[in-house]
Amino acid sequence: MNPKIIFWLVFVALTALVLILNAKYGLLRDESTRETKKPYSYARTQLTWWTVIVLSGFTTVILKHQEIPTLTDGILILLGISSATTMTARITDNSDQDQTNTKDIIQNLPGENFLIDILSDSNGVSIHRLQAVLFNVVIGFWFIQKTLANLVSSSFDMSNILPDIEMNNLILMGLSAGTYAALKTTENKGTSGKNTNLKDSKTNENQ
Predict the structure, then answer these.
(1) Helices marked H in 26-106 — which ranges?
(2) 8-state DSSP, 120
(3) Which residues touch 169 (CB under 8 Å, ≥6 apart)?
(4) pTM metric for this prediction
């Protein structure tokens, strides 16, 4: 079978699995004490995005060539950045849940929709989150395109079939993730009144 077809079949299967787990267990949603409609998490989405992309290429090589491809340093660093971002967000969420007025914290407000949730902080849609999302999407599609090209290349080389990511691009991703993590720690600090007003506004919109 054509390796491109295998890649997309694996990609679709993994994506379907993510959607099922999200629908049943809230895989992509924030930690929240709300029972329903928890907001989507940028950090979890980023980690899932790169996990699906890398695992799709990794699995395709195994199925097509019965060999385990080499994960480059760049890929490992990128997955590490995504994991560290998710861990930092989780620690921040757990810490915020210990506050007295937990009903007013951002992650306990009802989510709107996937895109708005991952792009928004306590002040609404934010430029630093938009920047991070765009960089992840663009580099992600580049990674997919390079992987597919390598899979069908006449100069097939198992050692670099999954493309490496240049250090400057990794630094860019790290800076975006660091900005997100740093600003996330301040989202619920001294914003109780603002969050309450936001909650009331969303409640009125849903009525």
Answers:
(1) 42-65, 73-97
(2) E
(3) 74, 139
(4) 0.80
Distance from C-alpha of 115 to C-alpha of 171, rounded to nearest angstrom: 25
What are the tens digits of pLDDT across the range 151-190?
887 666 666 788 889 999 999 999 988 888 888 777 766 5
What would the two tokens of residue 2 be? Answer: 């054509």
**Two structure tokens written together for 120:** 């928004």
List Cα–Cα distances, 36 to 24, 100, 105, in angstroms: 12, 21, 15
Distance, in Å, from the CA atom of 175 to the CA atom of 136, rounded to the nearest integer, reads 12
Please choose, from the candidates 30, 136, 25, the residue with its C-alpha nearest in 3D space to the C-alpha of residue 93. 30
Q: Give me the mean pLDDT over the 42-55 stretch.
A: 94
Comparing C-alpha atoms, which of 64, 43, 10 is closest to residue 185? 43
Q: Which two tokens stand for residue 66?
A: 């019965």
Q: Cα(85)–Cα(100) distance, rounded to whole angstroms?
A: 26
